[in-house]
What does this fold into?
Amino acid sequence: MSDDENQFEQGNAGSSHTYTESAGSLKKGGYVMLKGHPCKITDVSTSKAGKHGHAKASIVGKDIFTNKTYEDSAPTSHNIDVPFVTKKEYTLMDIQGDGFVILMNEDGSTKEDLKLPETEDDFKLVQEIREMFDAGKDLLISVLSAMGEEKIVGSREAQDK
It folds into this structure.
């Protein structure tokens, strides 16, 4: 057997997009799955246990991809799904006419499957990216990933090394 045959692709193939956490331990600013959507928690409140019940956590959050607000409640002792959320920066290489961007990874490989966000909430961000790119500035683009989806969520000017 050669060394090449023993190398395996590293990654999260087959792994879950979520993990569980006690509803009572969720905090504002964290992430949670509400009604099947990955959300950033904007408010968490707990009510005291009733005569026959459990203490409940009321959770309000905004979908990290659409910005739509979702609410849910669960007993604080129960587990609730929390999405694995990652944020990664790429160098912006080009903006295509159809809104797709060409991004470069740290290893030099390119990523061409992301489009500039098109929601009203992201108008200012997109305008900022286009203006800075058109001015010839080197930009780093922040991409949020969760549940197999990705979205451009920020940008900043690259610093010279």
Q: What stands out?
A: Confidence is low (pLDDT under 50) at residues 1-14.
